[in-house]
Design brief:
This protein is α/β, with parallel strands linked by helices. It has 13 helices and twelve strands. 48% of the residues are buried. The structure holds pyridoxal-5'-phosphate.
């Protein structure tokens, strides 16, 4: 059976060119970048070249503003704790949003235990932060605003440029978790007024376990991991040279292909959204209708358990997800969908389709062909999908489109 991968927000396949480049730095060119001899210098040169490529992907003013990490979780920890610790004398207040990834939320909760105060901004029905709420939340103790660029579940893109402008006006640092956006959406940290930006390689065809944090020149930040002088004292530990080389190659490819990738993914996504909304009864589109990642479609199907839907799609060879990969395995409904005002019932029936550059229109058509049969079967087994489901009047879910 053909297998179709529609879960690119969980992870992406490593690009073959990126993998080949990485392999060379595991086997032939295996030097430690801190060594003074030619093996070491070879590795150092490769890291410096990768830094240039990553800087170019996000429009950084200088490659020196890129610090390699082990991925998104580490980048978020370093940005938030690092800024909090270095600016403690100035203030102890941080602003974030209720729909952030746990790498941000749990880091903020940890800082609360250390005496910081955190405001978790609510979001609107599309998962977007309101600028008015942000403005009102700022106090003279606010040192950091951390709002994600694009949401990992529903794909909503936040007004980062405006947030960055406001932060700069008020002399507050602005960090954005751009793990889902980098390589999949055009970013320019200078135009977007971003001070710190987290990225993770495995979300855009680089190997897993490597990422980077952009830190604008002049930002006051402490290291949180101590040891050697690696990454200019910002991140101790022997560099993951092969991973960094793979990340550099993936960044180069993403920069080269960005414009056509965005258009292509949006075409596939729009076909899925328009067909599902037109043909499937009792469905709600989650996330913003227009301000969303080009490869993200997220729906709630009433009278269906997300897990059963995933298993049935898997039996047809289609890999998708319900909620975020990090929370799958737990039966708790997604904190993102709840923050957007969905009821537990509606949140439970969610399906996330995240597309990648290798997906095709034929795969989309196949998905659109099998989905209605699966939903019909699951709904027929649901005790809730009785009389009420067929009458708009008694539809228990005002958020859902009933035919
Ligand atoms: N932030 C967001 C928005 C994510 O989607 C993820 C992973 O899914 C992370 C952070 C964590 O990244 P990593 O898996 O590289 O630690």
């Amino acid at each position: 059976m053909k297998r179709i991968y529609f879960d690119h927000s969980a992870t992406t396949p490593c690009d073959k060119e990126a993998a080949a480049a990485a392999l060379e730095y595991m086997t032939e060119k295996f030097g430690n970048a801190s060594s003074i001899h030619s093996f070491g210098r070879e590795a150092r040169k490769a890291i410096d070249e990768a830094r240039e490529k990553v800087a170019a992907l996000i429009g950084a003013a200088s490659a020196n503003e890129i610090f390699f990490t082990s991925g998104g979780t580490e980048g978020d920890n370093l940005a938030i704790k690092g800024v909090a610790f270095a600016n403690r004398k100035k203030g102890n207040h941080i602003i974030t949003s209720a729909v952030e990834h746990h790498a941000v939320l749990h880091t903020c909760e940890y800082l609360e235990k250390l005496g910081f105060t955190v405001t978790y901004l609510p979001v609107d029905e599309y998962g977007m932060v309101r600028m008015d709420d942000l403005r009102k939340a700022i106090t003279d103790k606010t040192i950091l605003i951390s709002i994600m660029l694009a949401n990992n579940e529903v794909g909503t893109i936040q007004p980062v440029q405006e947030i960055g402008r406001l932060a700069r006006e008020k002399g507050i640092y602005f960090h954005t978790d751009a793990v889902q956006a980098v390589g999949n959406y055009p970013i320019n940290v200078q135009e977007m007024n971003i001070d710190l930006l987290t990225m993770s390689g495995h979300k855009f065809h680089a190997p897993k376990g490597v990422g980077a944090l952009y830190i604008r020149r002049g930002v006051r930040i402490d290291a949180v991991q101590h040891g050697g002088a690696h990454e200019r004292n910002m991140r101790a530990g022997t560099e993951n040279v092969s991973g960094i080389v793979g990340l550099g190659k993936a960044a180069e490819i993403a920069t080269r292909d960005m414009a056509k990738k965005v258009v292509y993914l949006a075409q596939l996504r729009d076909k899925i959204i328009s067909e599902v909304m037109a043909k499937i009864p009792h469905v709600k589109l989650n996330g913003h209708p227009t301000e969303r990642l080009p490869g993200n479609a997220n729906f709630s199907f009433l009278y269906v358990e997300g897990e059963s839907l995933l298993l049935n799609l898997d039996l047809k060879g289609i890999a998708a997800s319900s909620g975020s990969a990090c929370t799958s395995g737990s039966l708790d409904p997604s904190h993102v969908l709840l923050a957007m005002g969905l009821t537990h019932e509606v949140a439970h029936g969610s399906l996330r389709i995240t597309l990648g550059r290798d997906n095709t229109m034929e795969e989309v058509d196949y998905f659109l062909e099998v989905l209605p049969e699966i939903l019909d079967r699951l709904r027929a087994m649901s005790p809730l999908f009785g009389e009420s489901a067929h009458t708009a009047v008694s539809n228990p879910c005002s958020q859902c489109r009933a035919h």
